[in-house]
Amino acid sequence: MKLQNKTALITGGNSGIGLATAQLFIAEGARVAITGRSQKTLDAAAKGLGSNALAFNADVLDSKARDVLFATIKEKFGHLDIVFANAGVGHGGQLRKLPKQRLTKF
User: Fold this and answer.
1) Cys staple from 8: which of 82, 89, 92, 95, with CB 3.0 to 4.6 Å?
2) Could you tell me which CATH class the domain 7-88 is placed in?
C-alpha cells in the first residue's frame, strides 16, 4: 500500500474527481479528510469511504472553517501529509463572450 500511514486532505472530496481520489487514497492505505459544501453528498461520501475518512461541511475559502478543519485533522489523525486542492466551481460559456478583464487573469 503506497499511502500506508499517510493522511490526506481532499477539498471537494464529496463528489467527482475528489471523491474518486479519496476512494483511491483509502484503497492505498491513507486516512482521508474530505470537504464539501453539500451535507447530503458529504454524508453519502463518508458512508461509502468508511472508517478511515472524515467529512467536513466547509467552504475552504472561510478561514475559520479551515482552522476547525486543520485542528480536527490533527486531533483525529495526528498529522497531515497530503493536500489535494480539488474544490472549485466551473462556469461554462464561450471564450469570445468573456469580458476582457476576466481573460487577463489567465
Assistant:
1) 82
2) alpha beta
